Amino acid sequence: MSETRRCPYCQRSFLSSRYRPQQEVCSQPECQRRRRADYHRKKIAQDPEYHQVVLESQKKWRAQHPDYDQQRRQANPKLVQDNRERQRHRDRKRRLQRLAKNNLALDLKHSASEAWLLGPKLRDLDKNNLASAQVLILPLLTSVASRADPS
Ligand SMILES: [Zn+2]
Fold first, then answer.
1. How far is the CA of 29 from the centre of ligand 1 (A)?
2. How far apart are the CA of 38 and the centre of ligand 1, in A?
3. Structure letter (DSSP) for residue 73
4. Which of 114, 145, 119 minimizes the C-alpha distance to 132?
5. Number of H-type helices and E-type strands within the chain
6. What angle do CA 48, 53, 54 make, to 5 degrees?
7. Rounded to the nearest whole angstrom, what is the distance from the C-alpha of residue 112 to the centroid of ligand 1?
8. Cα(24) to centroid of ligand 1, in Å?
9. From the CA of 50, how far away is ligand 1's center (Å)?
């Protein structure tokens, strides 16, 4: 028996398939692709065994296509640049979180990701667009900063 439903992706009404009465997503290829991708993501998050299988099959695929990453990087220099940028961002954020953790004088516990630091590094941070980490270096922290942060 068919039933009229509304597709959660494209918001269009559709008639559920007679063979799949539970169908919740319309049959357009794009909506089906999204349904599969969402299922995959959810399954990875919820099922460690499934996640493991996915990781292993990715590893196997990469072993069988050793040139893929390199070719991809060569074909997309921007990708490399973006990755480098993100890694720098992560490194810096980690350093600052460590710094916040190490600093017992200040109560930064409640805001590891929102630590505010002020001072000489500010311009540097500004330049690297660390807006999402919302970091502010306090002048008092400079000595701690240079001790905890070798760079
Ligand atoms: Zn749809």
1. 8
2. 14
3. H
4. 114
5. 6, 2
6. 95
7. 41
8. 9
9. 27
Q: How far apart are the CA of 18 and the centre of ligand 1, in A?
A: 17
Is 60 exceeded by the pLDDT of residue 66?
yes
Contact call for residues 116 and 135 (beta carbons, < 8 A) = yes
Q: Give the pLDDT score at 142.
A: 45
> How far does CA 55 lie from the centroid of its chain?
17
Select the more confidently predicted residue: 25 or 145.
Answer: 25
15, β-bridge pairs: 4
Whole-number Å distance, alpha carbon 12 to ligand 1 midpoint, is 6
Span of 5-14, 19-28, 127-136 with lowest mean pLDDT? 127-136
Residue with tokens 């460690």: 48
Measured CA to CA, the distance from residue 122 to residue 96 in angstroms comes to 12
Going by their DSSP bridges, the two strands 13-15 and 4-6 should be labelled as: antiparallel
How much distance in Å is there from the Cα of 43 to the middle of ligand 1?
Answer: 21
Is 7 within 8 Å of 14 (Cβ atoms)? yes
Selected residue with higher pLDDT from 51 and 93: 51
For residues 105 and 127, is the Cβ–Cβ distance under 8 A? no
Q: Which two tokens stand for residue 51?
A: 């996640």
